[in-house]
Amino acid sequence: MQDLKGKVTLITGGTKGIGYGIAEALLNQGLKVVITSRSQTAADKAAKELAAKTNCVGSIIGIQADVREFQSQAKAVEQALNTFGQLDVVIANAGLGHFSSIEDLTIEQWNDTIDTNLTGAFNSIKASVEALKASKGYYITISSLAGANFFASGSAYNASKFGVTGFTQAVMLDLRKYGVKVSTIMPGSVSTHFNGNEPSEDEAWKIQSEDLGELVVDVLRMNPRTLPSKIEVRPTTPPSAKK
Q: Which positions are annotated as active-site residues?
């Protein structure tokens, strides 16, 4: 079992939802964490909250970075290295969704979805690949079951997540020779603020962000000889399955 204490993780979109849950879980395991957001205010606020919740002051920083822009992501990687001296794990989590019939989907919505979800995953690994090769680290993308199952009004989101799933598997084959492990996690329904959702007690049946944090810990602690390259995660009992 891998010892994670002291390893350094960069999580894109780490100020809320899945990214926040993963950051909390990793801090509790003794890792140092860098979270990014398009807003420095949001990044600082989340980092302060997480430090207090986990009693890990000095082990987390928040950085303003936009995954849609390579240079912005490269600066985030540089800041992580300058702050903590190494980079062991990169989690490409930042994402958004625009859901509309193709007749109504705008060009701006298409570009925003692809640039954030898919190009953002590319920029994250492109900016950090040399650091991960040096540490024989781990690159994880957060895809979706929508990256394997299409649905009406999902053309932009499906395209981005199908792309993330395929992209990650190809990167896994590219980097395994350097000792870099690459996985994609594909959650189903998660109780977060994604796409304007408001989590509530009615969503107790959904995957919770802390569940995905626990999963990431398990993946990182796995013996290096074994690679769970693509992991589908879904609620055990969705409302449609209840009698």
A: 157
- Furthest-apart CA pair in the chain: how many Å? 55
Q: What is the pTM of this model?
A: 0.95
Give Rg (Cα) of the chain.
17
Domains of the chain: 8-233 (3.40.50.720)
> 115, 66 in Cβ contact below 8 A?
no
Show contacts of 102-111: CB within 8 Å, 24+ apart.
Answer: 102/155, 105/155, 105/156, 109/156, 110/156
- Give the position of tokens 């692809």: 114
pLDDT averaged over consecutive 10-residue blocks of the chain (243 residues)? Answer: 91 96 98 97 98 96 98 98 98 96 98 98 98 98 97 97 98 98 96 73 90 97 95 91 67
The 10 Å CB-count burial string (b at 16+, else e) for 21-33 is bbbbbbbbbebbb
Structure tokens at 146: 């929508």
CA–CA gap between residue 121 and residue 105 (Å, rounded): 22
Give the pairing of strands 60-64 and 138-142.
unpaired
pLDDT value of residue 199: 74
| Residue 185, Ramachandran bin (φ over 0: left; ψ between -120 and 50: alpha; else beta) | beta
138 beta partners: 89, 181
Residue with tokens 């995905």: 212
